[in-house]
Amino acid sequence: MLNTTTFQPYPDYWIGYGFNRFVGPEVLSATTTSKEQPTGLNNTLRVYAHCAAPVPEDGASPSGDVIVFWSSASVVDTYNLTIAIGAGAGGSVTSGDLYRLSPGGGDLYSPDMELNGQVLKLGANDELPAFDPVHEEPQGDGSVQVTVPPMGTGWVVLKGANAAACSTGKGA
Fold first, then answer.
1. pTM score of the predicted model
2. Which domains are present in the chain?
3. From CA 157, how far away is CA 23, in angstroms rounded?
4. What is the mean pLDDT of residues 90-111?
């Protein structure tokens, strides 16, 4: 996961880092539907849901927050996702923190990874860069809109979801 000459992380390192930092152990049910299916939707887009990673102080997911993450294996299709919490799942989403990872410069073979358009690099003393989200306001129905570019990976933390499964530590 590291370049053995420069010791800079390769793109897969950043995916693993984000997963370990943000995704909790409780797995939730995630379903996808599409009225307009791009070429091979069922073969190129994966969507998963988990409780957000626990806060170290109390071991609970922050306010029952939910994280939905995706990975597109398509080199041509862009997906427009509407992410919503199912009825009876908990509260209403107050905001969505979006983390969109993509190959550096849009080049699939780039040694760089971008987070929300900014190249991820270790600092001068090998400190990790800030992992700053783009804040998305929910729609009137509480859903969050996300565009997934070709070969895109990312996740959105649904703040205020108050999912019961995430508050009790039991997945759905």
1. 0.82
2. 11-168 (2.60.40.1180)
3. 9
4. 83
